[in-house]
Write a sequence for this structure.
């Protein structure tokens, strides 16, 4: 079971307190009526699904109830960093380089 | 290579079965093939077999980064059934069901298909409504499926607990009698042997690392850990790794790869007559011919390529199994493992063309593609040979996520298998 640190509660808790919420930083289109079918497909269905670092959302469902973001390695399942909603997405390429050092 | 028959068996018995030959070659890759298939799971191998046998395309290579059948094919819980909801799926899964019936004879390889029946339990009013809807839809389409009361379900599977005191009592069940299980490894091996016999090169320990495209954008070949291999037609059949392979060609996919776990118990004498599944309480089980109880759990919640998952998932499943079948409460579990399953938003596969000329894909089987192996290979071979889909896989396009013509099988595929 994963151990996850909620950035709001500041504590490490077992995964069963959390609910996964998929890839992070997929912004709802500002003007939905202007979207082409391709753009809708991209927004609704296409996913990065990387083998490596993934920016993803979690929700502390059985704690504070809040959403937050995390960068996790999908091969080792290790969390690289966890950050609050609204904070900028870390530079994944830099994290890869740092991890290699 | 010899055919398996009574005389061969008798002859080899005389030398203590030590002189059986290799069942397929281990060839060096050639510089060029007519068709390259990426992934030697059941689906990729079946594709190669039908390409050679039904379409006369024998200059084919199947490239596998590990060993053949070592992906989800060799990790699944082997349930075979065709009681899906929509006509498109009924066509696809029932096509496979027809091919399963005499696949052992077809391949001259015992794939141990056992039509022992698959029973899906209903625990809530919603379950009853959904399953009855499936039963009626299936019967309209000529697909076998029937509704059982809880008592009839117990008659079909005596170990089943139908007490009213359960947390989620059994209220009835949907039964497909000709559904069942088959030996997963044998399916991969049988297709590998059959394809090899027609001259298909199965190249293991050969990871595809790039997809080479020409100035016109069309596929020219694949870069691999064993060098460049040219081919104008490439079929990607890489299950959980499909996104990573399609990334090499710059094609975004509507897929997410999740861990899916299973476990087996110590072997015991035959005591469990059929396959029982419960979507609502996340458990399903059958007994293998070796005597182990084969138990499947749900997916983990997060994307992962680790081929392992959290222990709370099988623990949750075991709790459900103990409640459903109290006689197994003291069974010990022997092994637990995971696979990486490629899940689409509508829980239906993608089988067909891609925006890249010459590049085809067969993926998105998620938690339940073993059952479709023969049918999937059969229609994908047609697609690769003709450059156009077979009528059965025509609805399963990648483009459906743009047009909105989804084939929503979330209820039929709700838990794994
Ligand atoms: C625990 C579990 C239980 C399941 N239970 C059932 C069930 O009861 N019934 C059912 O119908 N289905 C079940 N499934 C689903 C089923 O196993 C799959 O849908 C099916 O086996 C997929 O077959 P495949 O040939 O497409 O994939 P795989 O067998 O995974 O083959 C894909 C192959 O591609 C190779 N590959 C990947 N990337 C590359 C690359 N870059 N280069 C070369 N090769 C590559 C992989 O190594 C792999 O061998 C289960 C799955 C799991 C994990
Ligand atoms: Zn919290």
């Amino acid at each position: 079971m994963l151990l996850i640190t909620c950035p709001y509660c500041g504590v490490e808790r077992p995964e069963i307190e959390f609910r996964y919420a998929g890839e992070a930083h997929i912004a709802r289109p500002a003007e939905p009526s202007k979207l082409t079918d391709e753009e809708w497909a991209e927004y609704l269905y296409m996913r990065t699904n990387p083998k490596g670092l993934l920016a993803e959302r979690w929700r502390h469902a059985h704690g504070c109830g809040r959403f937050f973001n995390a960068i996790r390695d999908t091969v080792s399942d290790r969390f690289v960093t966890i950050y609050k909603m609204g904070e900028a997405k870390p530079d994944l390429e830099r994290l890869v380089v740092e991890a290699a050092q | 290579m010899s055919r398996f028959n009574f005389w061969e068996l008798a002859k080899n018995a005389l030398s203590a079965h030590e002189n059986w030959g290799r069942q397929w070659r281990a060839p060096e890759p050639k510089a060029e093939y007519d068709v390259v298939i990426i992934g030697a799971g059941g689906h990729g191998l079946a594709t190669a077999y039908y390409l050679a046998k039904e379409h006369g395309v024998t200059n084919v290579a199947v490239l596998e980064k590990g060993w053949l059948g070592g992906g989800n094919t060799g990790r699944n819980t082997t349930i075979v059934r065709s009681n899906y909801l929509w006509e498109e799926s009924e066509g696809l899964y029932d096509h496979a069901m027809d091919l399963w019936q005499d696949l052992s004879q077809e391949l001259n390889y015992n794939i141990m298909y056992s039509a022992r029946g698959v029973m899906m339990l209903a625990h809530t009013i919603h379950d009853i409504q959904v399953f009855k809807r499936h039963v009626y839809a299936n019967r309209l389409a000529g697909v076998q499926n029937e509704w059982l009361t809880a008592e009839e379900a117990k008659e079909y599977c005596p170990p089943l607990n139908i007490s009213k005191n359960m947390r989620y009592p059994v209220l009835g069940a949907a039964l497909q009698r000709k559904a069942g299980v088959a030996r997963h490894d044998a399916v991969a091996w049988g297709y590998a042997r059959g394809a090899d016999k027609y001259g298909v090169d199965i190249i293991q320990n050969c990871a595809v690392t790039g997809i080479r495209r020409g100035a016109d954008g069309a596929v020219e070949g694949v870069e691999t850990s064993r060098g460049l291999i040219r081919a104008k037609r490439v079929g990607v059949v890489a299950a959980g790794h499909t996104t990573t392979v399609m990334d090499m060609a710059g094609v975004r996919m509507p897929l997410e790869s999740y861990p899916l776990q299973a476990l087996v118990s110590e072997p015991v004498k035959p005591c469990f007559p059929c396959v029982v599944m419960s979507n609502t309480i996340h458990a399903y089980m059958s007994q293998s011919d070796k005597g182990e109880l084969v138990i499947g759990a749900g997916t983990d919640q997060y994307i992962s390529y680790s081929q392992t998952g959290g222990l709370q998932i099988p623990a949750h499943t075991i709790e459900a199994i103990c409640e459903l079948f109290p006689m197994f409460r003291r069974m010990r579990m022997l092994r637990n493992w995971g696979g990486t399953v490629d899940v689409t938003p509508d829980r239906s596969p993608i089988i067909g063309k891609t925006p890249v000329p010459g590049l085809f894909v067969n993926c998105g089987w998620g938690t339940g593609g073993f059952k479709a192996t023969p049918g999937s290979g059969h229609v994908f071979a047609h697609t690769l040979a003709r450059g156009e889909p077979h009528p059965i896989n025509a609805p399963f396009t990648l483009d459906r996520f743009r047009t909105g013509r989804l084939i929503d099988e979330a209820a039929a595929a709700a838990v794994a298998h």
Q: What stands out?
A: The longest helix of chain A spans residues 92-100. Chain A has one domain: 3-100.
